[in-house]
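In keeping with the milestone schedule agreed at the kick-off meeting, the structural modelling team has produced records for the first pair of proteins. Each record is given below as a sequence line and a C-alpha cell line. The laboratory manager (R.T.) confirmed that both were archived under the project's standard naming scheme.
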Amino acid sequence: MSLITRTTTEKTPPPTPESPADAHRDPAPSAPAPSPSGPSSPGTSSPPPPRSSLGGPVRPAPVRRVVRRLGSLLVTGVTKSAAIAALLLLWEAAPRLGLVDRIFLPPFSEVAVAWWELAADGQLADHTYASLVRSFSGFGLALALAVPLGLLIGWYRPVAELLGPLLEVFRNTAALALLPVFVLLLGIGETSKISIVVYACAWPVLLNTISAVRNVDPTLLKLARSMDLSAPRLFQKVILPSAVPVIFTGIRLAGAVSILVLVAAEMIGAKAGLGYLINASQYNFAIPQMYAGIVTISAIGVAFNQLLVVLERRLSSWRVSPGS
C-alpha cells in the first residue's frame, strides 16, 4: 500500500511556475480611479484646454488671423489711396500758394463745396441720372451686338472674310468724328446720343472677342473634339471659358469709352447730363461747378470699372492666379 502511494506521488507532475508575463497580467482590466488631487499619470487622460476668465476655451488663432487680415487691408488701402491723397493735396495747395491761377483752377475745397451745393439742390442727381441712362443703354446694346458678332467672326472664317474689309474701314474712323453725322441723321434727341455710344463701345468688345476666339488653345479644342462634343457644347465648355478674360478686357475698355464719348455728345444739343453741366458751367464761368462735374464723371468711371472687375472675377474664377 505504501509502495502504490509512493509511486502515485512520484508520477504527479509538480506545478509549473508562472511566466513573468503571466505573473504581471491582471485578471481583468479595470477603469483607472480618478485621483482627487495631484497630476494625472501619463497616458490616462489629456489635460483640459486652457480656459479664459469667462469660462470659455481660449482660441488665439482666429483672433490673430482677423488682426492680420485687418492690418493687411489697412496697408493695402493706404497704399492705393496715397497717390490720390497726394494729388488732392497738391490741388489744394497750388492755387493757394499762387503756383496756378486761382480763377481757372480753384482749390479742391471750393470744388467740394460746389459739389455739395449741386448735390443738395438736386441738380447733380438729375444730370447724373440722365447721363447714366444714356451711357448704360448704349453700353448694353453694344454688348448685345458685339459679343455674338465677335464669336461668329472669330469662329467662322467665311464670315470673317466677308465682313473683314468693312470692319477695317469703320474701326479706323473715330466715333467723335461721326458725331455730326449722327446728329444730322438722327437729330439732337436721345437717339443720336445713345447711337454714338453704341458705335464707340462696340469696337473694343468686338475686336477683343474676335481675338479671344481665335487664340483659344488648340490642344483644348482637339481634346474636346476627341470627346465628340457638339458645337453648342464646345462653345459652352471650351471656347467661352477660355475667351472670357480677353472679352472682359474689351468690356472694361468699352465701359470707359461709354462715359467719355457721352460727355462729348451731351455738349451738343443736350438739356441735361454731366456733359451739359460741364459745358454750361464753362460758359457761365462757374468754374467750381465745372470741376465738380468732372470729378463726378471720374468717380462714376472708377466705380463702373471696379464693378466690371468683380464681375470678371466671378465669371473666370476657374483661372489660377500667377502668384498661387
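The second protein of the pair:
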Amino acid sequence: MAKIIIERARRAPSAVIDRIAAFVRFRLIGGEIDKGLLFKTVMYVILINVAFIYMKPILYMVTTMVKDARNILDPTVIWVPKSIFLGHIREAMRLLDYTKSLAISVSLAGAVSVLQVFSCAVAGYAFARLDFPFKRFWMAMLLFTFIMPPQVIILPTIMMFKNFGWLDTVLPMVIPAIFGHGLKGALFVIIYRSFYSTLPKELDEAARMDGAGAFRLFFRVMFPLSKSAIVVVVLFSFVWNWNDFYLPSIFMFTAENVPLSITLARMAAEMARAAGAGEMSVYEESIKMAASFLIVFPLLIVYFFAQRWFIEGVERTGLVE
C-alpha cells in the first residue's frame, strides 16, 4: 500500500503537467488550427489593421471638415479637434449647389440602375436558359465589350450623340441602360447569367407544361426568384453611376445642371485657380473634405440599410468565386 501511494505521488506532477499541456494545446492553440485562441487573436489583429486602412481616409475627412482656424493652425491637433465647427459643411453645400446636384445624381444613378436591372436580367436569362443562333459568338462579344476600355470607342460615341443632339443632357447615360449597355452593363448580364444557370431545369419544364412561353416564364417565374441578383445589380449600378466622373465629364462638360461628381471637380478647379492667383485660404482643405463627405454620405446611408441583403446577394450569385 505504501508503495502504491509513493508511486502515485511521483506521477502526480507529470499528470498535472500533461493536463496543463492539453489545456494549452486545445484552448490556446486549438485542437483544430482555426478554433484556437492564438489563431483567433492573429485573425482579429489582421482584420483590425485592414479595417483601419479603409477607415483612415474617412476618419481623416470627418475630423478635418469640423476644424476651425485655431485647430487648423495648431500643429498639435491632428485627429481630435478641440472644438467642432460646422461652417465648412454649409460652405461646401453652397459651392456644390448641393440640393440641385444631389437631386440630379439621385435621379441619374437611380434611373440607370432601375433600367439595367430589367434589361440586363432579360439578356442574362437569354444567355442562361434559351437557345438562339450564334449564342457563343454573342457571349464572346459580350465579354469583349466588358474588357474593352471605354476610351477606345469614346470618340465615335461622342459624334453619334452629338448628331442626336443629346450632348449636355443625361440621355447618353440613360438610353444605353435601356438596352443592357451603360456603365458596367456587361458585368450585370454576366451576374444574371451566373444566377439563372444555377436554377433547376424543372422550373422551365413545369412552366411550359402549364402553357407558359419564354416571356411569361421570365416575368412570372425567373425574375421574381432573382431577388438576390437584383440587390447586387441595383447597388453596384447605383454606386458606380453615382461615383462616375468620366462619362458625365464627356457628355455634360458644358451643362449647367450636373451631378455631384462634376460639381466637386469644378469646385476643386476653382479653388486651384484661386490658389494660383494668390488667394490662399486656411479653410481650403477643410472645405474639400466637407464636400467629399457630402458626396459619400448618401452612399453610406444606402449601404448601412442594405448591407445584409447585399452580402447575401453576393454569396448567392456566386460573385465571390
